[in-house]
Amino acid sequence: MENETKLSIYRAARSIKRKDNTLYNALRSIYEDSIFVGEISQLWPQLPLVANLRCGLWYSSKFHSTCYFKSTDGHTNNWSFNTSRLNFHIALLSGQKGGCIIVDSTRRGKRFPDSMSKTIPIWTCVLNRSVSNYLNKLRVGDAGSLVERELDSGQNSADWDCSLHLPLWVSEIEKAAIEDRLEGWTKDLDESGADIAALASCLKKPLRPLWISQRTVIWINEVPDYDSWDFTPIMLVSASSTSGVAQHRTTSEFSWNYIPGAGDDEESWARGLSPYLFWNHAYDLISSGPDLCNQKVADIVEKDRVYRAQRGQNAPQVTAKPSVSRSSPHLPCLNPQLCSDLSNMNISSSEEECGIFWIGSTNLGLATSQVAEHASNVDCVLNCDQRSISICLPEAEAYLHLPIVNSKFDRFSLFNNLPSAVSFAKLNLAKGRKLLICCHDGEDISVCVCLAILISLFDYEGSFDDGKSFSETCVTKTEMRRRLVYICKYAIKARPSRGNLKQVFGFLNSGKVA
To answer: What does the pLDDT read at residue 1?
Structure first.
C-alpha cells in the first residue's frame, strides 16, 4: 500500500511537470526572454551578439557569431581551461569590436549558468595572462618599432589586468582554488600554439566579464559607454527570469506557464523544431495558442523536411515513440533527429558565407555534408557522414564515403576508418589537390579526421611532407592539442568530442598509419 502511494505521488508529480513543460510554454517563454535580450543588445548596438551553443541560439533571430563554453568546465572541483574549446575567435572578435555580448540561459534556481559564472571568467583571465606574458617578452626583447607601436596604443604589460574576476556569489574558497590553477592553464595555452601575437595586436585592453540578468538595474538615460572603460567587456547575458517559483502568466487570449531556461535540452521538447525554423514562424506559433501549437510545429517541421528532401538534402523523418506514462497516452515522447541548422541562422560571419573552412595553406577544408554537395573549387571529397552525397567531381576516385558514427554509438568506428581516410588524403594531397572533409554537422567527426590527417602527413609548419615528420616523432597529447588549436584557428565551429579525440590519439600511436 505504501509503495502504491509513493508511486501515485511520483506519477502525479510527473504529470504536473509534463503539463508545465509543454511545447507552447517553452516557445512562449523563449519568446518573452528574447525581448529582454533584444533590449540589452540595443543598449550597446555596436557590440556583436554571440550565442553560446546550444541553448543561447534560441534567444534571438540575429547573431553575429556563436561560441561554445561548457558549464561542466565551471562545475565546482571540476574547473577546466580546455584548449579544444578555445573560442579564440570570440577573443579576436572582442578585440576588433571593443567587446561582445554572449547570450545563454539556465534552468530554475540559478541566475546564471556555470558557463557564465566560472567558465568564461576563467577563460578571460587565462587569455589576459597569456597576452601579458607576450607583452613582457616584447618589452624585454629587441622588438624595435613593434614594441613602441604597441606601447603607444595603450598596451602596457605592467598595467594589464591579469586578476580573476568572478561574480559575488562564488565563494572566496572556490575563487582561491581556481586561482591556484591559473598558472598551469596559462602554461597550457602558451604551449598550445595559439596565435597570442594576433590576439595581442588587436586587443587594446584586457578582457573582463560583466553579468547582466533580468534582475540587473540599468538606468536607460545613463547607459555607460564601453569605450570609456579600461577593459574590453564580455557582457554575459542570462536570458531567463530568475524567479524560484512557477510563474503562471495570462494574456488577453491565452494563459501559460513560464519556464526558465526553456531553450536548454532541446531534444526533450522541440519536436524537431530548430531555432531557425522557430524564428521564421515565431509570430504564427506564439499566436496559435497552447491548443494548436503542437500541430503547427509538426506542420512546419514536416514542410521543412519535404523542402530539404526535394533538394537532396539531409531530411530524416521525426518519429514519435509511445509514451512511457500510461496516464498520458496522447502525449508522445518525440525523438527528434534534426539538429539545429546553424547554417541557416542569420549569423553574419565572413567565413560562414561559403560554409567551407580552409585550414591555412594545407589544402584541407571542413564543411557539413550539406555544404559539400554544392561545393565548388574542390578537387576531392572525403565524406564521413552516414549518408552518401551526390557531387560532381572530375574522377570517381576523388570521392570516398566512410560512414563513421559518433563514439557514443560505436567506440571504434572512427578508429577503424582512419587508415582509409589517411590513405585517401595522402594519395590526393600528394597530387596537390584540394581535399574537403565533411560530416553531418562539420563540427566533430570531420574535425577529428582532419586532425589525424594533419598530424600524419604534415610537418609542424603545416606543410605536406608525406608523413616524414610523423615517422620521426612520437605523438603526444600536447602535440595533438597544438594541432587541434591550429585547426580551430580556421574552423571556428569545431567542437570535437572527447571520445572521438581519444580514438584519434589511439590511432596515431597504434602503428596503423600508412
So the answer is: 54
Strand partners of residue 453? none
Q: Which of 277, 274, 244 is closest to 261 using CA atoms?
A: 244
Q: Cα–Cα distance between 381 and 435 in angstroms, integer?
A: 6
Strands 435-439 and 346-347: unpaired
Name the DSSP class of 56: G
Q: Contact at 8 Å (CB) between 19 and 210? A: no
CA distance 229 to 225: 7
DSSP E strand boundaries for 34-86: 49-52, 62-63, 65-67
* 111 contacts: CB under 8 Å, gap ≥ 6: 169, 211, 213, 215, 238, 242
β-pair type (100-104, 232-238): parallel
Structure confidence by residue, pLDDT tens digits, 19-76: 567 999 999 999 999 999 999 999 999 999 999 998 999 999 999 999 999 999 999 8
Distance separating alpha carbons of residues 163 and 506, to the nearest angstrom: 38
User: Three cell numbers at 339?
Assistant: 539538429
**Cβ distance 357 to 493 under 8 Å?**
yes
Lowest mean pLDDT among 94-108, 132-146, 253-267, 391-405: 132-146
Torsion angle, alpha carbons of 127, 454, 490, 506, to 10: -60
Say how far apart CA 276 and CA 345 lie, in whole Å. 5
The residue written with cell numbers 594576433 in the block is 198
**Encoded amino acid at 355, one letter:** G
Q: What is the pLDDT of residues 178-210, one digit of tens each?
A: 999 999 999 999 998 899 999 999 999 999 999
Beta strand 357-358 pairing with 364-368: antiparallel
Long-range Cβ pairs for the range 135-138 (8 Å, 24+):
135/160, 135/200
Angle formed by the axes of helices 120-140 and 172-191, to 10°? Answer: 50
Query: What letter would DSSP give residue 15?
Result: H
**How far, in Å, CA of 252 to CA of 375, rounded?**
50
Q: What does the alpha-carbon distance between residue 445 and residue 406 come to, in Å, rounded to a whole number?
A: 7
How crowded is the C-beta side of 196, counted as CA atoms within 13 Å?
21
| pTM summary value | 0.83
